[in-house]
Amino acid sequence: MSSTSDNPLVRFAAFWWGLGVFSLFGVILLAIKLFTGNDDSVNPLEEAVAAKRYDARAAVDAAQAANLGYKEVEKGKVVQVPPTDVFGLLGKELVAAKPAAVEKPEQIVPGSDRQLAAADAPPSDFGAVDEMTPAADAEIDPAVIEAGKAQYMAATCFVCHGMNGEGGPLAPPLAASDWVTGPVSNLIRIQFRGLMGPITVSGKEYNLPAPMAPLSQQTDEQVASVLTYIRNSFGNKASAVLPEQVKMLRSEVGKPMLTADDLIKP
Ligand code: HEC
């Protein structure tokens, strides 16, 4: 007994019919897609996320564009703050953000109770510190110079004062500076309190765009070595600075920023 489905001719025809119907299906789907304009390449969720990202980006760009020095953005208004107020303002922000958690003895937050108490403390005895300065021709441990060189990089002195102490748009030179080879107490105090305002270095007056911030997070040894390094590099030659001298002026930390008038003239 033979059935029609076994007929090779019928099988052949069924195959082509099947293929035809299948293709038609594809053509219909394509037509639907073309006519409904259904474009699934835009995902509404992704679009929302991207919009947020663009908003954040625009806010960052605006803040950066406005950030010449430091500006307070208040109720959508940009207020220019003089560079000398920058540290006070930053300090206030730090105080507002739980100063107890961030304040360490060697890092006094500007505007905190500790800083205000330090600012009122009696002046340190600079004379006693300068009297301890070793003789100019006393030998200096090369290891101290090496440590000072590393500290000159680590404390970012080179960024402002240049790799060779040549100075630049941000800071006066340390090479051939009468301050650098002058009284040691000046140098230690500059590290602990920072320095602002016009300054004459070896006869030339400088008006820098921003002050030198205090670098009081350094240890006594680090301050002593970096100062010993700058006093014996870039063509300078002067005595070493001792960690004991630095230690004696720790009470300077937290006092207001210095101006050249607060220093002993070199
Ligand atoms: C952010 C930039 C900056 C950094 C970092 C910096 N300084 Fe200064 N420094 C200055 C400015 C600005 C002055 C001048 C301040 C003023 O009177 O306006 C100055 C002044 C000095 C002076 C006295 C003036 C002179 O040229 O001799 C010494 C010494 C000094 N810096 C040493 C250092 C040392 C050491 C370091 C690193 C531990 C350092 N500075 C890091 C900007 C900087």
Give structural notes.
With 266 residues, this protein is mostly helical. The chain has a domain at 124-262: Cytochrome Bc1 Complex, Chain D, domain 2. It has helices spanning 8-36, 44-66, 86-96, 99-102, 113-120, 126-131, 142-154, 157-161, 184-193, 220-231, 243-248, and strands at residues 70-74, 77-81, 195-196, 199-201, 204-206, 258-259.
The main sheet comes to: 2 strands, antiparallel
Structural class: mainly alpha
* SSE pattern: HHEEHHHHHHHEEEHHE
Helix content: 40-55%
**CATH topology of one domain, what is it called?**
Cytochrome Bc1 Complex, Chain D, domain 2
First and last CA, distance: 124 Å
Strand content: 5-15%
Radius of gyration based on Cα positions: 35 Å
Q: How does the SSE layout of this entry go?
A:
Elements (H helix, E strand, L loop, with lengths): L7 H29 L7 H23 L3 E5 L2 E5 L4 H11 L2 H4 L10 H8 L5 H6 L10 H13 L2 H5 L22 H10 L1 E2 L2 E3 L2 E3 L13 H12 L11 H6 L9 E2 L7
Parallel strand pairs: 3-6
Antiparallel strand pairs: 1-2, 4-5
Jot down its keywords.
266 residues, mainly alpha, Cytochrome Bc1 Complex, Chain D, domain 2, two-stranded antiparallel sheet, two-stranded parallel ribbon, elongated, binds heme C
What is this structure, in a nutshell?
The chain is mainly α.
